[in-house]
Design a protein that fits this description.
mainly alpha, about 80% helix, about 0% strand
Length: about 45
Amino acid sequence: MFALITPDIWRLADVFGSVRLSLVAVGSVAATAATVVIGVLSL
């Protein structure tokens, strides 16, 4: 939640543009999902 109020996030969003920002968001979700799957498989 803290990251939403820092000015750096808004500057990145402005510089990246909507397409690149969407790709970064999808990549972040994919990396999080991969981390969870790898964590579960290693049990």
